[in-house]
Amino acid sequence: MHRTYSLRSSRAPTASQLQNPPPPPSSTKGRFFGKGGLAYTFRRNAAGAFGPELARKLSQLVKIEKNVLRSMEVTANERREAAKQLSVWGLENDDDVSDITDKLGVLIYEVSELDDQFIDRYDQYRLTLKSIRDIEGSVQPSRDRKDKITDKIAYLKYKDPASPKIEVLEQELVRAEAESLVAEAQLSNITRSKLRAAFNYQFDSIIEHSEKIALIAGYGKALLELMDDSPVTPGETRPAYDGYEASKQIIIDCESALNEWTLDGAQVKPTLSFKQEDYEDYETEDSSDNNIPRQHVEGEELDDERWTDEEDPEGEAHAEAAEEDDQEAEEDAQDAEEEPEVDEDEAETEEAETEQQATA
């Protein structure tokens, strides 16, 4: 998928293909019915030609996925037979070849068992898509009814504009549109939830299947290390083979590794070119008010630091405004204290004048 963003464009070679050029195409590809039998082609085309129009494309996809499942079943059965035949062939060879091929047959047979498990999980993905197809088929009648009523109204308006049936049909059209809106909303919601669940089934099964096969391949290469492939001269005998216990232990270790594997412990993790937290922070900035300071500067990495009073210019402005308010409050308090003093002096002068008048 290197530099390929669509199935409609040709793929550029990957780094692995540039390092190790791929072999020529297999001789069995494209020969006679190599791309699929007549039954596969008939089922696929029939699914896209019958049934509700809304569900035809998804029906075709479901049928194609069924063909994929049957092909994988054939592959699993053939691989199982190949493992048995490998063990049978190695039985008549030297001790080391006989033991190694027998143990390799066990590993390849286990791969076929993993294929069977993968088929069962892959079928869950197909059945979930099938449920979306059934819902699309149930929505189609409401669309057809609305379109039929609309066509009748248009026909009557053209042929007999004064017909009383037009009003009745318009009322039916309103009800049909309401039913169609409900059905379309349900289809939209269920399509998204089911589609997400379906491909979660598929991708989880692919991760499990591929990583377990990778484990088996690793232990298979460990088995090959027990085989002495150094050349010998004519008449020279090879050293006696003593790897029976080691090969048996490799099979036991492989079985333990497969039994202990869990999806949470998967080794392969996606590496995204963007950070999820950057995207979330971008959303919060768009939805926040303009008074809220930005949490980061473009081009810099996100961290958990926040603006302090010394670093935040807006914080300094708020502090200065608070100091000015405090100064104004103190001045008002001083003025309030001075006003009562003036009133006391005036009262004393008035009392003195009244006493002088009384003595006179």
From TrEMBL:
GO molecular function per UniProt: lipid binding
Gene3D superfamilies: Arfaptin homology (AH) domain/BAR domain
Pfam families: Pil1 (PF13805)
GO biological process: eisosome assembly; endocytosis
Region called Disordered, residue ranges: 1-31, 279-360
Record's compositionally biased regions (Polar residues): 1-19
Key word Iron-sulfur present: no
Entry keyword annotation includes Amino-acid biosynthesis: no
Bias type Acidic residues, positions: 279-288, 300-314, 322-354
The entry's keywords: Phosphoprotein
GO cellular component: eisosome filament; plasma membrane
PANTHER family (alphabetical): SPHINGOLIPID LONG CHAIN BASE-RESPONSIVE PROTEIN PIL1
Full protein name: Lipid-binding protein
Organism: Maudiozyma humilis
